[in-house]
Amino acid sequence: MPASPPPRAARRVSRRVQLARRRALALLIVLLLGGTIAAVALSRPGEAGAGAPSAPPAPQAPPAPPVSVSATPAPSPSNAPSPAHAPEPGVCDDPALLDALAGGTDGTDGDVVAAAGGGAAFRAAVASGAAPCIDLFDSGRTWVVVNKHHPLDPLDYWPTPQAQPKELRIVGGNGWLRADVAAALDDLAVAIVADGAGRLGVSSAFRPYRYQVGLYNGYVSSRGRAAADLRSARPGHSEHQTGLAVDVVACGSGCGTHDGFRGTSQARWLVDNAWRFGFIVRYEDGQTDVTGYDWEPWHLRFIGVELATAYHEGGFRTLEEFSGLPAAPDYER
């Protein structure tokens, strides 16, 4: 017999159960979807929900310097340019030399020459123009150059202190010289006698400006100006006025003259030995086109032992060449 339909109350209960199940399933689906969305959101920083603080950005490394596109390679130790060299200090940068020039505590011309490195170094520096602090025309210096181009300054210059040599006979003038020159001449006079080459006398030493005026004018009157200029200096241009020059003659039982000095044993000895005492034969034979004077083997000029040694060893024959100066055969005015 067919089943009979469920009663109405039973059908109501069945519908309630199905509805509850659907609600529970829907809630489960909602929960599952919400969890998935939250998980995705948490896995993406910076997309947090409103009100959640965003994480600070991670620090970045500084950018690398741009690579040069120049075709010139960077300098390496092998091809790097050498640094510019500082200029070598000159003679006039030496405090010792400047102090000696200024006089220092006991400054002498010998101190200046020594500070420059000796006679040869001094000569090389002044002749090349590398020592502008050394004045070749300072009337009071042993290295002064006095010639037809360069007069004394002042014209009436008078050297001090002065002394007379004691080992030579004074046969002309008064024999006064600069004190250091007189002492050196005494040493020379003793040595020439010891070497058996004879004795010397002084025929002319220091000559002041006014004396030179009368002497030169006398030569002009007797010989004419051109001839006078070959034998006597014009006033203000004479080495004798510096107190550094002396004319000598040969002496035995008596003393000779200037013109008789050529060829004597004394003249030959001076050529070979005067430098050892600081003297040079100033006007040599064959040098008139440089010095402007005839040969005067009797005319000695003191420049100091250090410079006279460099003069002798260098084979120089004129003070002009030694000092790096042009020839001065004629007066410029």
Describe what this molecule looks like in 3D.
With 333 residues, the protein is of the alpha+beta class. Among the domains are: 91-134, no CATH class; 147-323, Muramoyl-pentapeptide Carboxypeptidase, domain 2, CATH 3.30.1380. It has eleven helices and seven strands. The strands form two sheets. It has a five-stranded mixed β-sheet. α2 (95-102) runs antiparallel to α3 and α6 (209-223) crosses α7. The longest helix is centred in the N-terminal third of the chain and has 35 residues, at 8-42. The protein is elongated. Mean pLDDT is 83; it is low at 1-14 and 38-82.
Task: Output the keywords.
alpha+beta, two-stranded antiparallel sheet, five-stranded mixed beta sheet, 333 residues, Muramoyl-pentapeptide Carboxypeptidase, domain 2, 7 strands
Short note summarizing the structure:
The chain has 333 residues and is an alpha+beta fold. The protein has eleven helices and seven strands. Among the domains are: 44 residues, no CATH class; 177 residues, Muramoyl-pentapeptide Carboxypeptidase, domain 2.
